[in-house]
Design a protein that fits this description.
Blueprint lengths: L2 H17 L6 E4 L9 E7 L17 E7 L13 E4 L4 H16 L4 E3 L5 E2 L2 H13 L4 E6 L16 E6 L8 E3 H7 L12 H8 L7 E11 L8 H4 L4 H11 L10 E6 L5
Parallel strand pairs: 2-3, 2-5, 3-4, 7-10
Antiparallel strand pairs: 1-4, 5-9, 6-10, 7-9, 8-10, 8-11
Helix pairs in contact: 1-2
Amino acid sequence: MGKGVVECMTKKKDKSKKDKVNTGAKVIKPIHYTGDKRFLVMARVGDSSLHKEWLEPKERKNFDLYLEYYGDGQNDYKNDCEFYTKAKETKWPRFYEVIKEYGDEIFKYDAIWMPDDDISTNCSTINKMFKIFMQYNLSLAQPALTKDSYYSHKITRRKSKYFLRYTKFVEVMVPIFSREALQLCWDSFRKSKSGWGLDSIWPKLLGFPDDKMAIIDEIRVKHTRPVGGGTLYKDIQGSAYEELDRICEEYGLTEQYDFNVYGKIRKETDK
């Protein structure tokens, strides 16, 4: 970690002691990097979470799992993960608070995946996703969505003839960050309760890279719930569209989304 980043994190941690948001978070198993795994999966999970699928087959798991339970109390997932907390709020403001508190530990991982809890996949797929992410030296990426997934943006659906596509868009649903990319982007998480607008500004925060952002078509996951069908939009005040407009204006973006593809790697054998 560079000197400037260390100084920034130190200042933010000192400040957090004074102005930490009271979200009623309960820490059961705090995040503590042991060095056993290079990768971290972070997810906020409710009572219908699919995260148990991510753990099978268990013998192949090469990542640590942090879960934060936001449900109504009928589930306790602490035995499913290495790190565990409970809190309300929404995904991105809470991840901002978690990184403010545990950034020194989180930034020891090489890559961090932040999926929604309605993503259907398995341990082997997640392992392969991290492998490709590191192999292609990506900064920010996502797995493609299966053809039968609920989706918001057509670009995120799998294109079967490609291995990956270089883009300047990665959706807030399933982003994978490199350590360095997360260090640049995490402060933005507090700016949007809905998450809308964050995937618009992340490319700018990363300098609009040509070959560091991608949708990985070789890896596909299923989004199982209708867009807008969860508790998120019930938990926020105001409009997600208003958040999108506000954030893009704050960061000086004249175009909210860039759905262009800037390069493609074809599969060796098209399927």
